[in-house]
Design a protein that fits this description.
alpha+beta, Uridine Diphospho-n-acetylenolpyruvylglucosamine Reductase, domain 2, Uridine Diphospho-n-acetylenolpyruvylglucosamine Reductase, domain 3, eight-stranded antiparallel sheet, binds flavin-adenine dinucleotide
């Protein structure tokens, strides 16, 4: 069948390698300016959910292996593989809110910023990713460490149902009550999921009416004392307070590399916000801070502004993650030394103490695997292609030094090509085996690519 005939069956477009605009479209599939040199034979730009079904059926009949592009934010561009068909979902970005049931039906490429705005209009919210440009798709399929993780958990906890096109070329709905094994995998399998999700049904939360942030900025050499205080205060802060530590140059550091500790309270009222941040404001190191801002009112928009400044568009990126059972104090001094020596002043390390399930209310069984009690991600961020090797080396060396303390990685942001074991080490051993079994059931012929590895 010719490309012209295939195109006729689609509401969107089919692009072949060799077409005049192939390279522009291929490189636009990845948000990171560091574009991987991998080239699909065919790109289908789906303009409708029907197109996704058509594309999977075409790929099956032509023997093309399939990858999927949601919002394009995977750091290593997992949607780009050599050969086969890439199904681009970027035009599927609708978000339909049903305030009466506090549910939203969201298409894959809807961005966090747009979802948050649509929900806020109804006094509702969801645990979207920290940057406004992160689309729902690959984020929630990876588990999704979004805003307010202490109270809301990983984003996939709020997933009630998905609609997906399977490797057999059928449309299925999956939830805890039907096709439960595929739903279990959709809650965490990330960039190795073996169906194309066209709709996510989300369970929403009341919008916190008094989001409030407080921030201390400390000189980088203070990292050991600051981190030990962070561990102490994290143990007493209520779950509605999200605590993060950034090592590097952030908007609040006025151009110097520093340790930035931010507490964001997702409180329902000003009084609740003040109470929730009391322990944070009792910081014994406050007088040693270079700058501090306390009780700043925030909205999802201002939170996105802060994050978008740290992870700006149009830059080259490399990222890597680790979970650890050590306290942050065992990880951050070494990482701070490396941040001080980073070839790019924009590079940062982010660390959090991950959310835990409330006592007596365990999270449901799902593929998302939280493999430690502390979590760190390093990001090399630069612009000049001439500095690629120096930045890539810096990240691998910095994370390599704390590597022996790692108990695993987070599938959303790990540097998959760094080692073939990266995907496996992003799940508990039992989850990994079960993922393989569920894949074998839903994609026995390997229509979908599995995890990208070295
Ligand atoms: C600026 C930035 C900020 C980020 N912030 C966060 C954060 O706060 N928390 C967090 O947890 N992560 C965060 N991430 C990581 C991000 O969640 C993951 O990289 C995620 O994979 C991106 O999803 P995507 O759909 O945009 O990616 P894409 O590159 O489009 O897709 C990645 C892979 O996901 C799979 N996939 C995507 N959509 C579908 C679908 N509809 N059906 C089936 N498979 C699909 C495919 O295997 C695809 O190859 C951030 C990334 C960036 C670049």
């Amino acid at each position: 069948m010719s490309a012209f005939e295939l195109d006729r069956d689609l509401d969107g477009r089919l692009i072949l390698r060799g077409d005049a605009d192939y390279e522009d479209i291929r490189s636009a599939m990845v948000w990171n300016e560091l574009k991987p040199p991998r080239y699909p034979d065919v790109i289908v730009r789906a303009a409708s959910e029907r197109d996704v079904l058509t594309a999977v059926r075409l790929a099956r009949s032509a023997g093309l292996r399939v990858t999927v592009r949601g919002g394009g934010h995977n750091w290593v561009g997992t949607s780009l593989r050599d050969g086969g068909m890439l199904i681009d979902l970027s035009q599927l970005d609708a978000c339909a809110v049903d305030p009466a049931s506090a549910r939203a039906s969201v298409q894959p490429a809807a961005r966090g910023r747009d979802i948050a705005a649509a929900l806020a209009g109804h006094g509702l919210a969801f645990a979207v990713g920290h940057c406004g440009s992160v689309a729902l798709s690959g984020f929630i399929l990876s588990g999704g460490l979004g805003w307010n993780p202490g109270a809301w958990g990983p984003a996939c906890l709020g997933l009630e149902e998905i609609e997906a096109v399977t490797a057999a070329g059928e449309v299925v709905r999956c939830s805890e009550h039907g096709n439960a094994d595929l739903f279990w995998a959709a809650r965490g399998a990330g960039p190795g999921f073996f169906a194309v999700v066209t709709r996510f049904l989300l369970r929403l939360r009341p919008l916190p009416k008094a989001i409030t942030t407080s921030t201390y900025v400390f000189a980088l050499p203070e990292v050991a004392d600051v981190t030990s205080w962070v561990s102490e205060v994290a143990a007493v802060l209520p779950s509605m307070v999200e605590l993060s530590v950034v090592l590097g140059t952030a908007p609040a550091t006025q151009g110097t590399k520093a340790v930035v500790v931010t507490a964001t309270s997702f409180a329902g009222s000003k009084d609740e916000a003040a109470r929730s941040l009391e322990a944070f404001h009792a910081c014994p190191l406050a007088e040693r801070s270079l700058t501090r801002v306390t009780r700043a009112p925030a909205t999802f928009d201002t939170l996105f502004e802060f994050s978008d400044a740290l992870w700006p568009p149009n830059h080259r990126y490399a990222a890597d993650t680790l979970w650890s059972r050590e306290e942050l104090g065992a990880l951050l001094p070494s990482l701070a030394d490396d941040v001080a020596k980073a070839p790019s002043d924009k590079s940062v390390v982010l660390a959090i103490i991950p959310p835990a399930a409330p006592a007596g209310n365990p999270w449901p069984d799902m593929a998302f695997s939280m493999l430690g009690t502390s979590y760190a991600v390093g990001y090399a961020i630069w612009q000049d292609p001439a500095h690629d090797q120096a930045n890539l080396r810096w990240l691998r060396e910095a994370l390599g030094k704390v590597g022996p303390l790692a108990t695993g990685h987070y599938i959303a942001e790990t540097d998959l090509p760094a080692a073939p074991s990266r995907a496996r080490r992003s799940f508990t051993p039992g989850t990994w085996e079960r993922l393989r079994a569920v894949r074998a059931r839903w994609d026995p012929d390997g229509v979908f690519h599995s995890y990208l590895s070295a």
